Amino acid sequence: MKFLSEYRDAGTVKKYLSELERVVTREWVLMEVRGGQTHSLVKNGLLSLLPAGIRMVHGPGCPVCVTPLALIDKAVYLAEREGVILCSFGDMLRVPGSEKSLLEAKAGGADVRILYSPLEAVKLAKQHPDRQVVFFAVGFETTAPANALSVLHAQREGLTNYALLTSHVLVPPAMEAILGDAQNIVQGFLGAGHVCTIMGLDEYYPIVERYRTPIVVTGFEPVDMVHGILMLVKQLESGSYKLENQYSRVVNETGNPAARQVMERVFRVADREWRGIGVIPQSGYELREELSGFDANRKFALPETPVETASECIAGEVLRGAKKPNECPQFGKRCTPAKPLGAPMVSSEGACAAYYHFEVAI
Ligand code: SF4
Question: Who is most buried in 17, 111, 115, 229, counting CB within 10 A?
Fold first, then answer.
C-alpha cells in the first residue's frame, strides 16, 4: 500500500469486517486510545458495521478534553493580564473555563492569538520585546517535541519574554490507570499510532505483560481501524496478549530518538491532573528546573486553585470509557458544540463532538 486512498478502500474494510465476523465468538470490550481514532470510527460509520460482539469504548486520548479547568482559567487569567500575548492552537479557544473561555476573553479585548506552531510564538516574542508571549502547550507526546524546541529556540535567541503554559499528558500512564481501575472493563487497546512515531514501542511491552492485555498500535484511517480491531480480537479469541504494530508504515520500534532528546532536554516527567479523571502519577511533562524562566506557572506565580467541572457533565466517565457520550443526559440537549458544557463537546478530537456531528444513534 502506498497511497492514502488505499487506507480508505471500502473493499478492504469489508474484507476485514467479514474476517472479524468469522473470528468473533463472544463479546469483547475494546478501547481506542486516541480521539482521532474515535472520530475515524464514528465519521466512517464503522461502529455500526462491527459485529455485535465487539463493543468499542472511547479513551482519554483527547488532550484538549483532559486539560483541567483550572489550567484553562490560568490561560484566561494570563490572556487578560496587561502586556501578555496568549497564543494557543485553535481547539483550546472555545473550551469553557469556570467563568469564560479564551474566545470570550478575546472578545473582551484580551490579546489571544491562534497559531499553528509554537515556533510562531517565539517569532512573536522576538517582534514584541515589550510584551510577554505565552504559548498554551497542550498535547500528548506528539506535540511535545515542537513545544520543547520552541523553548530551546527562545533560549538560543536570548529571549526572556517567552514562556510555556504546559498541559502535556502522556499516554501509557493513562492506559495503566484505566487497566488498574477496579471497575475496568477494557480487554484490549488500540494504541495511539502517532504517539508511537515519537516514543516507539518500548513503553508498551511492560503494560501488556503486567495487565495481560493485548495492545495493537493502530493508525487512523478506516482500514487501519478495522484491521487493528481484527488483530486485537484474534489475540483475545486465542487467549494471547502481546504488542502488535498495525501502523508499521509509520511506527517503528525506536520511534524518533532525536525528538525525544529535545523533549528530555526541556521537560521532566511529573504527576499530572487529567480533567474528569484526577491525578495520574508520572503522567505529564513539566519544564525542567533550569528552564523555569520559560515556565509560565513560575514566571507569573500563577495561583493553584482547584475548580470543579460542571456536575452535570460526565466527561470523566466518558474519558474512562465507562459511558458513551450519548448516555450523558445533557448530550444534544443542554450540551451541544455551539454551547458546550464540557471539553469533549468542543474539541475536534472529543468523543461527544464526534457523536454529535456524525449523529450516532441514541
Ligand atoms: S455531552 Fe457534554 S455534558 Fe455530557 S459528557 Fe459530553 S461534554 Fe460533558
Answer: 229
Distance between CA atoms of residues 306 and 314, nearest Å: 18
Report pLDDT digits (tens) over 263-276. 999 999 999 998 87
Residue 147 has pLDDT above 80, yes or no: yes
The greatest distance separating any two alpha carbons of the chain, rounded to the nearest whole angstrom, comes to: 66
CA–CA gap between residue 163 and residue 157 (Å, rounded): 13
For residues 178-198, give the mean pLDDT.
94
Q: Indicate whether residue 336 lines ligand 1 (CB < 6 A).
A: no
Beta strands in 254-298 (DSSP E): 267-274, 278-287
64 lines ligand 1 (CB under 6 A): no
Cell digits for 236? 483475545
**Mean local confidence (pLDDT), 70-90:** 95
Is the shortest distance between the CB of 228 and ligand 1 below 6 Å? no
Instruction: Name residues whose C-beta falls within 8 Å of residue 127's C-beta, 6 or more positions apart in sequence.
Output: none
Backbone angles phi, psi at 196, to 5 degrees: -70, -20
pTM of the model: 0.91
- Measured CA angle at 28 (ends 250, 16), to 5 deg: 50
- Report the nearest atom of ligand 1 relative to the CA of 352: 6
Determine phi and psi for 71, rounding to 5 degrees. -75, -35
What is the Rg, in whole angstroms, of the alpha carbon atoms belonging to the chain? 21
Query: Is pLDDT above 80 for 304?
Result: no
Residue 362: pLDDT band (50, 70, 90) is very low
Catalogue the E-assigned strands of 115-212.
132-139, 162-169, 188-192
